[in-house]
Specification:
The protein has 255 residues and is an all-alpha fold. It contains eight helices and no strands.
Length: 255
């Protein structure tokens, strides 16, 4: 959000300075190389729109993939809870699954907007896997369920690694730089003619600046999967917590 505010402020400042300079020193409108300037401005606009469209597609795909990863992690946690629920000795494991899910929601999510994950939740996941390994189930069925739970725990650990990678990822800076540079050319090239601004030209300038600034700001706001517009929420994990309650109703926890 700080980048967006800074970009808007700088754009407004540049536009006001250009208006003041052209108002004082600009000459009256006449055709002196305007055709070549118009061609250059249109070329810069085409480059800007191309980069903008490609960046938007990349950001949308990134958000979609991240949301799918979060849903897969929540489903794996639910399946792990199902696996340990019939094991009488697994009440502590159930508790740790709930604890890890809650810490992921309340500790991880605020940090992931900054590209980090909580070490507390990481430690809880390690303890969860250790507790699952230390189970001593009685009977072949319980042993099979334990092995399935261990497999699920490994999958949760892998899903956490992927989520951490998603949190530290984002749109390559080359796209933002390309949009800003081509956008500046779109805005500034008509001013190189040195023509005094008229109401019509000022309106055109405002439109150009608005198109460029809105486009760049929009990309910045959707460039990170856990912050800004369309940020992925932990709704899938909250749904998993509801599933835990349903599982408990079928397999009451035994102390």
């Amino acid at each position: 959000m700080g980048w967006v505010i800074m970009l808007v402020a700088v754009s407004i400042a540049i536009m006001l300075i250009a208006f003041l300079v052209l108002r004082r020193r600009g000459r009256e409108s006449e055709d002196r190389g305007s055709a070549s300037v118009d061609f250059s401005a249109n070329l810069a606009l085409a480059v800007y729109l191309l980069v903008l469209a490609y960046a938007a597609v990349l950001c949308r795909d990134g958000l979609s993939v991240t949301e799918t990863d979060v849903k897969a992690e929540a489903e794996t946690l639910t399946e792990m809870y199902w696996s340990v629920a019939p094991i009488p000795e697994a009440a502590p494991v159930r508790s740790q699954i709930r604890r890890y899910t809650a810490e992921t929601i309340h500790l991880d999510w605020p940090l992931m907007a900054r590209g980090e994950v909580s070490p507390v939740a990481t430690k809880t996941l390690e303890d969860l896997r250790s507790a699952t390994i230390r189970l001593r189930p009685v009977g072949e069925e319980s042993k099979t369920l334990q092995q399935d739970a261990l497999t699920r725990a490994s999958e949760v650990s892998h899903a956490r690694t992927i989520r951490s990678s998603d949190a530290s990822a984002g749109l390559e800076s080359i796209f933002v730089i390309s949009m800003i540079l081509s956008g500046l050319l779109v805005i500034a090239l008509p001013w190189t003619l040195g023509v005094k601004p008229t109401p019509a030209s000022m309106f055109a300038d405002l439109v150009r600046v608005a198109v460029v600034v809105i486009g760049v700001c929009f990309i910045i706001l959707i460039s990170h999967p856990f912050s800004g517009l369309g940020a992925v929420k932990p709704d899938a994990l909250r749904t998993a917590e509801q599933h835990y309650d349903q599982i408990d109703s079928q397999f009451p926890s035994q102390p």
